[in-house]
UniProtKB/TrEMBL annotation:
The lineage of its organism: Bacteria, Bacillati, Actinomycetota, Actinomycetes, Geodermatophilales. This is Hemerythrin HHE cation binding domain-containing protein. Residues 6-129 form the Hemerythrin-like domain. CDD domains: Hr-like (cd12108). It comes from Klenkia taihuensis. Residues 171-194 are annotated as: Disordered.
Amino acid sequence: MLDVCDLVLEDHHTMRRQFALLDDCWDDPRALGMIWKGLARMLDVHAACEEEVFYPYLLKYGDSGDDDATEGDVVDETDDAIGDHDEIRDAVAAAKKEEPGSEAWWAAVRKAREENDDHLAEEEHDALPDFRRNASVELRAELALRWLDWRYAHDSGEGITYDKDPEEYIEQYRSSPVADPVAHPVDRSSVTAS
Ligand SMILES: [Fe+2]
Ligand SMILES: [Fe+2]
């Protein structure tokens, strides 16, 4: 069965692999430029996709923090994630201004990698386990369809959103929660339309 959590993890694996490719090509600026072009876009697209298709649903269905048996709650998890996404996006934007292979470029890419590594670990330790515990398999499957459709429509990077204020983002989805995706399955021709 499709599962949005698995699709998130798949992207995380690809990102880590792509950063490792940069190490493989460390002395080839042309290859570095090509790999980075795709990786930079993927970092931005992945973050925007999570902000469309994962965190709004985590805020609705994840751990409210009322139960002492689990750590954290959806507000903390989302606040951390959006803040991290902003840091990653800023580092990616800084690296895009430098010449691939230059010292300044490596410094900016290293910063993006560190920010991203820390963030992926947090998502994998907090947000994703929270969703696996609290969201039904039907919901995770329906969101996987939305994830795929959104990604297919935005993989070029066109039309994606960038930095957001974490508090405003949380407030937006707390005051107007998303509709239940299982009760409102997406149309086969336009998953992103809802
Ligand atoms: Fe992620
Ligand atoms: Fe993320």
